[in-house]
């Protein structure tokens, strides 16, 4: 890496850190204002402080089950260490949350940028999620991320039940500068996926990203449709898709968790992208969803810019969340 590349990377890293800090500001302000009130006048972490902390975590949309797990871990540390000062609570809470989150930096699509170009077949990402969560925008931002790193990207507009989704993906493709395979609205989604992957193979693409329908009228239909798309993909690449990425709207809090549970029943979700964290105080939902589903968070959306879809790093995320 040359000196120019080093400074460029360092600048990009600082810009991403700033975007993350700003994107989590509403969650940080809400949580730490309340945490400060909970410990004011207290010297040690006692039962009353833990009760207040439990309430705070629930209000931050961490979720009941994960909150109970965090509180239980802190109780054990207090019992073991006998005396835990309230000034240490931030550090302890940070450590416990990092332990709960799964590390994903070297797996799935997060490792694409480190893969050699054209490794023989494209890495196929099938993107799922209900309408309105930012699914198509997330695909566009992912395409930008990979394309900017010099990777060959092909998009497949297989959400054919909604005209806006097809048109929006085509616009994103033009904006980023990558090809979009589309058959238009009310066509067979599986056929679109097949052609997109075939095109990806023919072009020597590194990544093929397939958009899918945001909502079918019941879970059985959703399951059947997604399974059909998978089967057709596998006619071209036997082990496709290599990642099923579920996009969730972080601003919906526990509704996002309920959506995640439904989609994990309908298909084998292997990674999560959680969007719109900059517009909510419910950033704790990232912690709860990852813990309860045991599915890694791959990306988080912290703003409107194309670079504001960030690769999720659990330590960076938690440190930003606790940076006052």
Automatic annotation (TrEMBL):
Protein name: Signal recognition particle receptor FtsY
Domain SRP54-type proteins GTP-binding positions: 296-309
Localization of this protein: Cell membrane; Cytoplasm
Species assigned in the record: Hymenobacter telluris
Pfam families named in the record: SRP54, SRP54_N
Catalytic activity: GTP + H2O = GDP + phosphate + H(+)
Subunit: Part of the signal recognition particle protein translocation system, which is composed of SRP and FtsY.
InterPro entries found in the cross-reference section: AAA+_ATPase (IPR003593), P-loop_NTPase (IPR027417), Signal_recog_particl_SRP54_hlx (IPR013822), SR_rcpt_FtsY (IPR004390), SRP/SRP_N (IPR036225), SRP54_GTPase_dom (IPR000897), SRP54_N_sf (IPR042101)
Function, as annotated: Involved in targeting and insertion of nascent membrane proteins into the cytoplasmic membrane. Acts as a receptor for the complex formed by the signal recognition particle (SRP) and the ribosome-nascent chain (RNC).
Any one Gene Ontology BP term: SRP-dependent cotranslational protein targeting to membrane
GO CC, one annotated term: cytoplasm
Protein family (similarity comment): Belongs to the GTP-binding SRP family. FtsY subfamily.
GO molecular function per UniProt: GTP binding; GTPase activity; signal recognition particle binding
Membrane topology classification: Peripheral membrane protein
EC number(s) on file: 3.6.5.4
Keyword set, alphabetical order: Cell membrane, Cytoplasm, GTP-binding, Hydrolase, Membrane, Nucleotide-binding, Receptor
Binding of GTP, residues: 129-136, 211-215, 275-278
């Amino acid at each position: 890496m040359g000196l120019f590349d080093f400074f460029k990377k360092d600048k990009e890293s600082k810009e991403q850190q700033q975007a993350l800090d700003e994107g989590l500001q509403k969650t940080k302000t809400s949580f730490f204002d309340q945490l400060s009130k909970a410990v004011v006048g207290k010297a040690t972490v006692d039962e009353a402080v833990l009760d207040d902390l439990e309430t705070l975590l629930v209000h931050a949309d961490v979720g009941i089950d994960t909150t109970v797990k965090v509180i239980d871990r802190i109780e054990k540390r207090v019992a073991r260490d006998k005396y835990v000062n309230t000034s240490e609570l931030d550090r302890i809470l940070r450590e416990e949350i990092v332990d709960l989150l799964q590390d994903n930096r070297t797996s799935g699509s997060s490792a694409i940028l480190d893969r050699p170009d054209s490794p023989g077949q494209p890495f196929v990402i099938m993107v799922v999620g209900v309408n309105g969560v930012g699914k198509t925008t997330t695909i566009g931002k992912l395409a930008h991320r990979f394309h900017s790193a010099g990777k060959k990207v092909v998009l497949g507009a297989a959400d054919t039940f909604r005209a806006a989704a097809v048109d929006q993906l085509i616009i994103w493709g033009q904006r980023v500068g990558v090809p979009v395979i589309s058959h238009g609205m009310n066509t067979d989604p599986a056929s679109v996926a097949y052609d997109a992957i075939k095109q990806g193979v023919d072009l020597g693409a590194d990544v093929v990203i397939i958009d899918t329908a945001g909502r079918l009228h019941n879970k059985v239909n959703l399951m059947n449709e997604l399974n059909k798309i998978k089967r057709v993909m596998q006619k071209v690449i036997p082990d496709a898709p290599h990642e099923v990425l579920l996009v969730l709207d972080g601003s919906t809090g526990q509704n996002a968790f309920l959506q995640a549970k439904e989609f994990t029943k309908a298909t084998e979700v292997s990674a999560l992208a959680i969007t719109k964290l900059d517009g909510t105080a419910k950033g704790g939902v990232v912690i709860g969803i990852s813990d309860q589903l045991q599915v890694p968070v791959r990306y988080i959306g912290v703003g409107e810019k194309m670079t504001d879809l960030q690769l999720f790093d659990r330590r960076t995320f938690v440190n930003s969340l606790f940076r006052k």
